[in-house]
Specification:
By secondary structure, the protein is of the alpha/beta class. The protein contains 16 helices and 14 strands.
């Protein structure tokens, strides 16, 4: 048991380490929104044009979804009141799971309260000691955490490199194997080579878990990255574990896992992050059903987003400093390099009324700190032009300061 003398020393250590984070430009601060999510927000009392959310279709404040949520509360109340395996699973949940499975073209789906919980739950249900998760080196942290909590071995392969994965599979014996990958990588915006990964999963009798947090609703006419890359879900269903989040393009909250009926039935029994937690409010499921309808009819939103991506990339093609990564998605990273420098770029943009976050290690590799520009269907051409102009100004300033050193 800690003594009263030990506790102040431990708190002093935390204070020193927080100071070290600040000195390295790695200390993070929470911002407080006092407006609805959208292209224009009020953050810490300041109106800003935001390029800082994952609300890719602009549905987070959609009035149709808001009305559906109100109606869901009137019908189902505020909370679920119990876990799914007790009395927390409602007709709204059942109907949404069926609709999500149909939309993705997979046989069955299971809701989770978040994408993080979904990935932890899948790994824990399918893997254990002696098993292996093969993970792309740039995967989201929750996939890696899933392997660690399952006590499985985590083998990381070179980013988006099917040859690297093939070598790892060939030299790693295991009882069970699960290949895990982001579909759209959250900090780079590029796509995983899912077709090649599926081939390797079939060859080595492995699961392929696809985290499509940033593709669902946007890519493949809204059906996600499998559809975008031309993969037939009927062919994939026996091998693929598909995870989509519902708080990004879908604009609400939660996540789902879709795949073979046997997989979903097993997760109902064994996914601890589903079994041992209160079900999400059924009113959210009602709002998500409305969101899915908007996604299905959302070609205009996706077209508007595509136009903004193209406009931004043309506008930033000749920046005097920084490097725009090769992304075709709504995530457009501008690589700056050092953490302190990325923070200065972000601050300079904020001074111009633009909210663009600086992303630093350990979220991204050392030396690749960046501005993560997130585009939305809620942005118009003038918004993109304003960002392009500001970035040229900041890049010119930063390049001039670097040359003067």
């Amino acid at each position: 048991m800690a003594t009263t003398q030990e506790r102040p020393a431990e708190l002093a250590r935390l204070a020193r380490e927080l100071g070290a984070l600040e000195a390295a430009g790695l200390l993070r601060h929470r911002r407080t929104l006092s407006s609805a999510q959208g292209a224009r927000v009020v953050v810490d009392g300041v109106p800003l044009l935001s390029f800082c959310s994952n609300d890719y279709l602009g549905l987070a404040a959609d009035p149709v979804l808001a009305q559906a949520l109100v109606e869901g509360v009137a019908r189902h109340g505020v909370g679920a009141g119990a876990s799914h395996l007790l009395t927390g699973h409602t007709l709204a949940h059942t109907e949404l799971e069926a609709a999500l499975a149909r939309w993705c073209g997979l046989p069955a789906a299971l809701l989770f309260s978040s994408g993080y919980m979904a990935n932890l739950g899948v790994a824990g249900a399918l893997l254990g000691r002696g098993d292996v998760m093969f993970a792309d080196r740039l995967n989201h942290a929750c996939l890696n955490d899933g392997a660690l909590l399952a006590r499985a071995r985590l083998v990381r392969y070179a980013h988006a490199d099917a040859s690297s994965l093939a070598r790892a599979l060939e030299r790693t014996p295991a009882r069970r194997r699960l290949i895990a990958t982001d579909a759209v990588f959250s900090m780079d915006g590029d796509l995983a080579p899912l077709r090649e990964l599926l081939g390797l999963a079939e060859r080595h009798d492995a699961w392929l878990m696809v985290d499509d947090a940033h593709g669902f609703g946007v890519l493949g006419d809204g059906r996600g990255s499998l559809a975008e890359l031309g993969l037939d879900p009927r062919r994939c269903a026996q091998r693929v574990i598909y995870m989509g989040t519902l708080g990004k393009a879908a604009g609400v909250a939660g996540a789902f896992v879709a795949g073979a009926p046997e997989l979903v039935d097993w997760l109902v029994q064994k996914a601890r992050t589903s079994v041992y937690t209160t079900a999400s409010p059924p009113a959210l499921a009602v709002a998500l059903a409305a969101s899915l309808e908007r996604i299905a009819a959302g070609q205009d939103l996706r077209a508007r987003l595509a136009e903004s991506i193209a406009r931004l990339r043309v506008g930033l093609a000749a920046l005097p400093a920084g490097r725009l990564a090769g992304s075709s998605t709504a995530i457009q990273p501008l690589i700056v390099g050092e953490s302190v420098e990325a923070v200065r770029w972000s601050e300079a943009l904020a001074a111009r009324g633009l909210l663009v976050p600086a992303i630093r290690p350990p979220t991204v590799p050392v030396g690749t700190a960046r501005l993560r520009i997130s585009l939305s269907a809620a942005h118009g051409p003038h918004d993109i032009d304003r960002l392009v102009t500001a970035l040229h100004e900041v890049a010119t300033e930063r390049a001039g300061l670097a040359a003067a050193r």
